[in-house]
Write a structure and sequence with these properties.
Number of domains: 1
CATH class: Alpha Beta
Number of helices: 9
Helix content: 40-55%
Structural class: alpha/beta
Order of helices and strands: HHEHEHEHEHEHHHEE
Largest sheet: 7 strands, mixed
Radius of gyration: 16 Å
CATH topology: Rossmann fold
Strand content: 15-25%
């Protein structure tokens, strides 16, 4: 099945409301486990590209309690939700939120660096050009930096995508179900990710498949 792109931003009031009520504990838990194990060092500064409504950012703050976190997103409504959540969880002293759009605001991110780690979850499939994410990471690289990127993997067919939606969003808001379906169709396969990475000249990266609908990349520079 060929990839079907979707809009870069998912930031309408209806979408943000659906995401605020959604349960992402399973994928967020997978991401936190991978990140926590891969970081190894006890403390540092972590940049989350595409932090959305902030749920994963808060989970990461719990998983790596001695790290300072910076969350970046281009959606003002999503960032507003993230700000509320960070405040409610009393994490404002450790978590900073910034409005930024890639690749336009890469200089802005460089100015607030350096970072010891960069993470990103489910941003890549939204970008008009997937190389935007890899080139952004490359622009911010520091020696020893660790990177974790996780995203959806495109199914072989629309029927398979529909089955995944049924299995993993049963009872969820119809807006969330439609967004998940669209995201599956817009996602990249592992072989496509490997082709993208091959153009970057990076080495020693690893891709795993932690679920039936996700791939996860780890790399240390």
């Amino acid at each position: 099945m060929n990839r079907i792109p979707e809009p870069e931003l998912m930031d309408t009031p209806e979408q943000t409301k659906a995401y605020a009520a959604a349960d992402f504990s399973e994928p967020n838990g997978l991401f936190c486990q991978i990140t926590q194990a891969f970081l190894e060092v006890p403390a540092g500064r972590l940049l989350d590209l595409g932090c959305g409504s902030g749920g994963l950012l808060v989970d990461l703050a719990t998983a790596v309690p001695d790290w300072l976190l910076v969350g970046v997103d281009a959606g003002p409504n999503m960032l507003s939700l993230a700000e509320t959540l960070v405040s409610e969880c009393q994490l404002s002293d450790r978590v900073t939120l910034i409005a930024a759009h890639l690749p336009t605001d890469v200089p802005k991110l460089k100015a607030i660096g350096p970072f010891d780690a960069i993470v990103s979850n489910s941003l890549l499939h939204h970008l008009e050009d997937p190389m935007t994410l890899w080139q952004t990471i490359d622009a911010l690289v520091q020696p020893g930096m660790r990177v974790v990127v996780m995203d959806l993997a495109r199914p072989q067919s629309k029927a398979e995508a529909e089955a995944l939606v049924e299995a993993h969003t049963q009872g969820a808001d119809p807006i969330l179900q439609q967004d998940f379906y669209n995201s599956l169709l817009a996602a990249w396969r592992v072989d496509e990710i490997e082709t993208q990475l091959a153009t970057m000249g990076w080495h020693q990266w690893r891709i795993q498949t932690p679920s039936n609908r996700h791939w996860a990349l780890t790399i240390q520079f």
